[in-house]
Specification:
Mean pLDDT: 72
Low-confidence stretches: 66-72, 81-87
Order of helices and strands: HHHH
Helix content: over 70%
Largest sheet: none
Strand content: under 5%
Number of helices: 4
Number of domains: 1
Distance between the termini: 109 Å
Radius of gyration: 50 Å
Shape: rod-shaped
């Protein structure tokens, strides 16, 4: 049995998303199988017709055909050596049958080729349409995936920007807290000195 999907598998534009390919196979499998059955049916019909015609010709060769009506007695008496001519006529008749057999054979071969050609043309159109549909769906999926990717990248960028802002805020707050703590420490350091100088009537 011929593999129905060889052309799809060997296609340069075969979709990368194999689950999509299997979906399309299920969609078109019945139609391709019907075309194969039609092709096989055409072949069997041609063979059947050929056998019937060849059998008829063989029967005629073997004399298994209805005999002609008996000739009148007067015609038999007027034979005058017509038997020999009949023998030669028999040879000519056999040659005619052979020629007719060749004509029938050629006729059926021609009809079969036409049927198979029509079926193959339909198969090509179907596979071409299938390839187009697969490419369209693949493109649609790729565009959808790209859109989702852009959305994810945008969301991540916003999060990064937010993190950067928070870090800047934390850094600023840390610097301010450190500066304040330093200032307070210095102030605390100056207070005892102020008191000691004030005892002698002097202030810093």
């Amino acid at each position: 049995m011929r593999k129905k999907w060889d052309r799809l598998l060997s296609s340069a534009k075969r979709p990368q998303n194999m689950h999509l390919w299997w979906t399309m196979q299920d969609q078109y499998d019945d139609e391709l199988e019907a075309m194969e059955e039609e092709e096989e049916k055409a072949w069997m019909e041609s063979q059947k017709q050929s056998k019937a015609h060849f059998q008829e010709l063989q029967d005629r060769k073997d004399g298994k055909v209805p005999k002609a009506a008996a000739k009148p007695k007067e015609e038999e008496e007027k034979g005058d050596g017509k038997e020999e001519e009949a023998g030669s006529d028999g040879d000519a008749g056999e040659a005619e049958i052979d020629e007719e057999e060749q004509k029938i054979r050629k006729k059926h071969e021609k009809e079969l080729k036409k049927k198979l050609r029509d079926i193959n043309s339909r198969r090509k159109r179907l596979v071409k349409d299938l390839d187009s549909e697969l490419n369209a769906k693949t493109k649609e999926i790729d565009e959808e995936m790209q859109k989702k990717k852009d959305e994810v990248e945008e969301a991540i960028k916003k999060k990064k920007d937010f993190v950067d802002e928070e870090i800047l805020k934390d850094r600023k707050a840390a610097k301010e807290a450190s500066a304040k703590a330093t200032e307070e420490a210095l102030q605390a350091l100056k207070e005892p000195a102020k008191k000691s100088f004030s005892l002698f009537g002097r202030e810093l």
